[in-house]
Predict the 3D structure of the following.
Amino acid sequence: MFRLAYGLDMVHVPFGGGGPALQSAVAGHTPIAFTALPPAIPLIKAGQLRALAVIGPRRASALPDVPTMTEAGLPGQETETVLLALAPAGTQKDIVTLLNREIVKIIATPEVLAKFDTLGFAPVGTTSEESSARIKAELDLWAKVIRDAKIA
């Protein structure tokens, strides 16, 4: 998405996860990495990596001095790591409602909020309908990126 938006001549280097990608950046093998915050935060705080921008719609509380891409002058790059609780298709509605209600309560507790904060996540309790809409929006976004990049 970044490469396409700015017409950059960059080579994507596939790694088997954020850890190997970050270690490659720390070692100087790759000059830049786009990754989720949890594995990057300790390396940033230790001074092994320099955080240039957060690719979300708002700053990360774990890195309050790091601007968003839009604040850094690079709009249109807003994406987030989306974590969802999922159940098999066909799960009874009352069970889905119960699970949703309990999960929303749990992620609102001070202990869980504090843990998420240290990882750079801001949990949001949504309904199953809102989660379904988010999944569809993510699929649409990344399908466009795949088409534009001529990946498939």
In short: The CA atoms of residues 132 and 139 lie 11 Å apart. The first helix runs from residue 2 to 6.
